[in-house]
Write a structure and sequence with these properties.
Chain lengths: ~475, ~475
């Protein structure tokens, strides 16, 4: 149902484009990866003019790859369970057959003839690398042109704006995003995707190793596709240097009902609108009615300790990341002063006011929070919390002459904690507020990626989503 | 004294080009950074035709930077203690004013207009970034054209071949090197430099973050210059993302006599020639005669435990690094099949036979060795060991039709342990064998960079070097 505001979203009805349930037809010849791709291309033709999810497309290359996959399915020689899957790549990652412009004027026309490690692995697995999705500038907060699939006057979230929107609209069944603060989970939550932000280091970031808490992750419309994409990449390139990489089964973990969950309110609770708070509490009551014990700051001193440990996560994440990027950004600004936004320049200025000692102290804050999480996390099967502070906000663009809006892609306040904790997190589209998606996220301790995926799968299968006006 | 084999080396006589002891003259106007630079350029004119230390030079840019520094010294407005110091940069690191060709045909003409973080920091500190030094191909073992300053038929060591040779010959007082296995300490030891390979993550590697155990480090002719360069960089860009960075005083640590040292023999002992073993034992006797207690595997079960923990370090380092580089190298080979050496191709093939599980097990071996070192290291002030297995070997070049020589830049067998342990190490030129330099290295636990520097300074000041035929 399309109207001037895009599709209307109801999490109880929504069925996004999936892949894993189509492969039987590829095997028996009643469908092919090439036909699957053509349907994606048709959807792009319909939705892209308003949604603007893509920074680049390589339809010819995709058709060639889909044809090769079609042959492999016919011959029973597939390379993996995602052979033939169209996958879109956030335009921060290098791709040898498409430009990598990072949403940044300074990189206009940038076209290294290399594949990022994850892209390389996807091709090795037979996936159809298909397009580059819009990113906020350099993965920060200065937005690109993408609009929210359910209301073009709202942000899709960022920085993985195009990945979230492309998956939501069925342009592709899966897309790669990246997160430093909230850049996977926030757009996924605003667009109604499922998404995995793995444990820090879970998926090899290839050339994108500059920051200590960035991860690659996967946007999809079902847990099965999400996990399969992640594990196929990790099987081929492993995790970041020095990290054990994503650990888990070679096929999606079975759904697992949790007995006990920690509910984290975090800094976001104070800014949460009443409708979203209400949706979340109804959802929590639903979990309790299924016999799941909930531990919250109001009934658990351990949870209160955890809440205290993640206070100010946004400031800590922002300071660490600004420092880690500042030399490279200063290089870029020196080379092309007009090639980056004022938002980036402001971030660099804040980093240049820091000393190595300031950075060390921020690292120490992060380590203390991680130590608390490692201790306290064990009292329950996982943590649940909102994936975003309510639905996607309106974003009409910067107004000339006015101060810059501080959060044009929405507030990552619910995402900083998992980023700071290096914790795996899966968002599940279990709420809507005013006809717009709001995600619930499941967070585990470092390395518990498969466990949170199994719990997220159970939630998606077994919990009735909540819609409030 | 120059003959057909280059300078004859005697560690008791050798006085290399230094910088810290010249700055008083810059201040009083009896010398200037520009004149200092011109003397370096004159030395290059004399030595470079045989030594071949440089892949690129930017004399005009250097003169301009030296003139600016000259003015700052006159005006009392210097940016740091290394203002005006000519520093050469290993050609793996990006420099905005010179090509970055990495000793690899595939990168011929590569000229990104960016500065590596360390280069950026050096310029911020007023140093004169001067030239790019020859590296073995991509920091591996396929050698470039540089020859050993004391015998042109021998290797200078690798992969920081040009940095080691340029400092030894007085072309520059300091140069940046990088080490994954043995690429700073080995060439420094073969060329008679002092050099610091910091604790893992000590100096921000900038764009070169691909591997988990690579560090930037400093080659110099004295401890003072070595430390000052390292700490000025760290003060401006800190360490690698997530690491606290090099910690220590803002000026060179005072010499510190150790009371007790661990002597490590390691895997290298079995292949060591008799003359080098003899030089090392004479040196150890000298330490004992100064009242320093030596703990060795023969008299300490703790040391024996440490020796066991670092057995096979070369295989572990090589497996980890091969895996971490394999995706990027495969990209490069796919793009430019004739652009990389057979040595690199062999390494990629070995990595492609590995699984993520093999990599995880190698990481685990590394972590176990680090845990042992953390425990055992505390029984003494530091560890001493050879920095190379004897003097630089002959390297007449590959012979067409013959199998590739496995170690054309010499064996890193004495360097893998500190790389694997993420341990800070300083090499000091305290031996010569057959008229060629052999280094002694001082190793500490992670973060003890200043301590090993202080001990190395004491050794250089207070121990008579040993020469054997």
């Amino acid at each position: 149902m399309t109207d001037s505001k895009g599709e209307t979203y109801d999490p109880r009805e929504f069925r996004g484009l999936t892949f894993h349930d189509m492969t039987e037809k590829f095997r028996d010849g009643s469908d092919t990866p090439r036909d699957y791709l053509e349907r994606c291309i048709e959807t792009i033709a319909v939705r892209e003019p308003v949604v603007k999810a893509f920074a680049a497309l390589n339809e010819d290359g995709a058709r060639e790859a889909a044809d090769a996959s079609t042959t492999r399915w016919k011959d029973g020689r597939t390379l993996s369970a995602i052979d033939g899957m169209p996958v879109a790549i956030k335009d921060l990652l290098e791709t040898k057959d498409m430009p990598t412009q990072m949403g940044c004027d300074a990189y206009e026309g940038n076209f290294p003839k290399r594949d990022n490690a994850a892209v390389w692995a996807l091709r090795q697995a037979g996936a159809v690398v298909f397009g580059k999705t819009v990113t906020a500038e350099l993965g920060g907060s200065h937005p690109g042109p993408t609009t929210n699939p359910y209301d073009p006057s709202r942000t899709p979230g960022g920085s993985s704006s195009g990945s979230g929107a492309a998956v939501a609209t069925g342009m592709v069944p899966a897309a790669i995003g990246t997160q430093v603060g909230g850049s996977i989970i926030r757009p996924a939550a605003f667009c109604g995707n499922v998404a995995l932000k793995p444990s820090q280091g879970g998926i090899n970031r290839g050339e994108r190793q500059a920051t200590s808490m960035s991860t690659h992750g996967v946007h999809a419309n079902c847990i099965e596709d999400m996990w399969q994409v992640a594990i196929e990449i990790a099987a081929r390139t492993g995790g970041d240097r020095g990290a054990p990489g994503l650990i888990g089964p070679p096929t999606p973990p079975a759904a697992s009902k949790p007995a006990r969950l920690i509910v984290v309110e975090s800094d976001g609770w104070a800014i949460l609108d009443d409708s979203s708070k209400s949706a979340f509490e109804i959802l929590m009551e639903g979990l309790q009615s299924q016999g799941i014990e909930l531990l919250r700051r109001r009934n658990s001193t351990s949870v209160e300790q955890l809440e205290k440990a993640i206070e100010g996560a946004g400031d800590i994440c922002s300071a660490i990341t600004a420092w880690e990027n500042h030399w490279a950004l200063r290089n870029l600004i020196d080379e092309k002063p007009d090639g980056v936004s004022q938002r980036i320049k402001n971030t660099v200025a804040s980093a240049e006011a820091m000393s190595p000692e300031d950075y060390r102290l921020a690292l120490l804050d992060r380590e203390k929070a991680q130590a608390t999480h490692a201790q306290v996390g064990g009292i329950a099967d996982a943590i649940v919390t909102l994936a975003c502070p309510g639905p996607a906000p309106l974003w009409p663009g910067d107004i000339p002459g006015e101060p810059l809006a501080p959060r044009p892609t929405g507030d990552a306040i619910y995402n900083y904690p998992s980023s700071m904790l290096f914790a795996p997190v899966v968002t599940v589209p279990l709420m809507s507020v005013g006809g717009l998606p709001v995600g619930l996220q499941v967070m585990g301790r470092q390395g518990e990626d498969a466990r949170v995926t199994a719990i997220a799968r159970w939630l998606k299968d077994s919990v009735t989503p909540v819609s409030v006006d």
